[in-house]
Design a protein that fits this description.
Blueprint lengths: L5 E5 L3 H8 L2 H4 L2 E4 L6 H8 L3 E5 L5 H8 L8 E6 L5 H8 L3 E5 L4 H15 L15 E2 L2 E2 L3 H14 L5 E4 L6 H10 L8 E5 L8 H6 L16 H4 L4 E5 L6 H13 L1 E2 L8 E2 L3 E6 L3 H6 L5 H7 L2 E4 L9 H17 L4 E2 L1 H9 L5 H15 L3 E2 L9 H8 L9 H15 L4 H8 L3 H11 L1 H4 L3
Parallel strand pairs: 1-2, 1-3, 3-4, 4-5, 8-13, 8-14, 9-10, 10-13, 15-16
Antiparallel strand pairs: 6-7, 11-12
Helix pairs in contact: 4-5, 7-8, 11-13, 14-16, 19-20
InterPro entries: AAA+_ATPase (IPR003593), AAA_lid_NorR (IPR058031), Homeodomain-like_sf (IPR009057), HTH_Fis (IPR002197), P-loop_NTPase (IPR027417), Sigma_54_int (IPR002078), Sigma_54_int_dom_ATP-bd_2 (IPR025943), Sigma_54_int_dom_CS (IPR025944)
Keywords: ATP-binding, DNA-binding, Nucleotide-binding, Transcription, Transcription regulation
GO biological process, one term: regulation of DNA-templated transcription
Length: about 450
């Protein structure tokens, strides 16, 4: 029988211990209370606990120092309570991402919410699946129960406690913006803005204005002041998606801001402070982008104080089926329906590699929901990736067929599978929407009649 998550409690002040033990959020854990007069770090190491609440005071400096060098931090999430005295050891622990540091006077409401959240994340009890429910674990905005996702959750919790710039690396469709937003939600900046900008979509002529803002009259068409994303995100988190696609010459300007901590709006004579945490992301391999001179190596190291790999769906054991159930449950709730996945459809979902990752899976379930009457069958799971288009039509491509015609076939097939949705089609084909429109214009209306 599975037990509740385990919590280790090391509190010396009787009054504080009493207040903590009165919290229902704490009592839901399986408790291990340290024995006073003995080395609590050794007790913690032997306890096999998932979480620890530790009172940090001057008398504990030696053990806190030992904790900072211990492998215990890799296995246990820590909440530290102190009276707020400056402590280099505590600063070092926070820099390691050891946990959350609460200073007196303690906000027990906030502590209770954190304990509830941690219990929910650590609780091994499964939920019974049904068409109306999702049984996957959730951390912030992320959903998934696979080991690699739980590893990601632990990493995000540690990194969120710091101000380190973070670089997310993952394929298209893996949910990098959700990862960045979750990192923001668990940070001390969560009450400030989260601003996301797609660097690939920025116009080269206006990129400085979008990032740093401009003053009225700075250039033709600047009829009023404009606040850039660095100022919009002040005090919060700025997410730079597809940062490797930023024009190379503009990367030097971004590097200068990250190094100096200040920027100047276009047309302004005064500098402003860049009071933001920067989280960047790419679907490229950074080394390849650097070798191809698409991305500055010095900018990468400035952004990647802490690089995080976001796993593709094919590496998330069991999550594809769980996410399909999750998306279906939300659609059922939204439409007051009770559609269910057949066992054959579940097998098809489990066996497919999902090159478009979670985004492709979500769109596939949306299509299946529309196509199915009550039970979603394998024929309703229509995958729209290029791999399927190639496998379906490979035998029908005559030898010597011009590449331009093969490209046209792939585009029209993918567009049909996406029911005419050009944004989804461009994403799956790996081209911009503008490029897709240009190619469709070239093909003419006759070619599009069947789509």
């Amino acid at each position: 029988m599975k037990t509740a998550p385990k919590l280790f409690l090391q509190i010396q002040q009787p009054e504080l211990a009493t207040e903590l033990l009165a919290l229902p959020s704490l009592r839901q854990f399986e408790l291990t209370i340290s024995q006073q007069g003995h080395c609590w770090l050794a007790q913690l190491a032997d306890s096999q606990c998932d979480l620890a609440i530790i009172e940090a005071n001057a008398e504990q400096q030696n053990q806190l120092q030992a904790l900072s060098q211990s492998s215990v931090l890799d296995k246990v999430q820590c909440l530290f309570l102190s009276q707020g005295e400056p402590s280099m050891i505590m600063d070092h622990l926070m820099g390691q991402g050891a946990g959350v540091h609460y200073r007196a006077p303690f906000n027990f409401t906030q502590l209770k919410a954190n304990l509830d959240e941690l219990f929910w994340a650590l609780d091994p009890s499964p939920q019974a699946p049904s068409p109306q429910t999702s049984y996957l674990d959730q951390f912030g905005l992320l959903v998934g129960s696979s080991p690699c996702m739980h590893q990601l959750y632990r990493t995000l919790r540690k990194v969120a406690a710091t101000n380190a710039n973070t670089f997310l690396i993952g394929e298209s469709g893996t949910g990098k913006e959700l990862v960045a937003n979750t990192l923001h939600l668990f940070s001390q900046r969560s009450d400030q803005a989260f601003i996301a900008v797609n660097c690939a979509a920025l116009s080269p002529e206006l990129i400085d204005s979008e990032l740093f803002g401009h003053v009225k009259g700075a250039f033709t068409g600047a009829h009023k002041d404009h606040i850039g994303v660095f100022e919009q995100a002040e005090g919060g988190t700025l997410f730079l998606d597809e940062v490797t696609e930023m024009p190379y010459e503009h990367q030097a300007k971004l590097l200068r801001v990250l190094e100096s901590g200040e920027y100047r709006p276009v047309g302004s004579q005064s500098f402003k402070q860049a009071k933001v945490r920067v989280v960047a992301a790419t679907n490229r391999t950074p080394k390849d982008a650097i070798d191809e001179e698409k991305f500055r190596e010095d900018l990468y190291f400035r952004l990647a104080h802490f690089p995080i790999q976001v796993p593709p769906l094919r590496n998330r054991q069991g999550d594809a089926v769980g996410l399909a159930q999750h998306f279906l449950a939300y659609r059922n709730t939204q439409d007051h329906s009770n559609k269910a996945l057949s066992s054959q459809a579940i097998n098809k979902i489990a066996q497919y590699q999902w090159p478009g990752n979670v985004r492709e899976l979500k769109h596939t379930i949306e299509r299946a929901f529309i196509l199915a009457e009550q039970t979603i069958l394998p024929e309703h799971i229509v995958t729209g990736g290029l791999a399927d288009a190639a496998s379906d039509s490979q035998s029908h491509i005559p030898a010597g067929m011009p590449l331009e015609d093969i490209e046209k076939m792939a585009i029209l097939k993918t567009l049909a599978d996406n029911q005419g949705n050009r944004n989804n089609t461009a994403q799956q084909l790996g081209i911009s929407v503008k490029t897709l429109y240009n190619k469709l214009d070239k093909y003419g209306t006759d070619s599009l009649a069947h789509v």
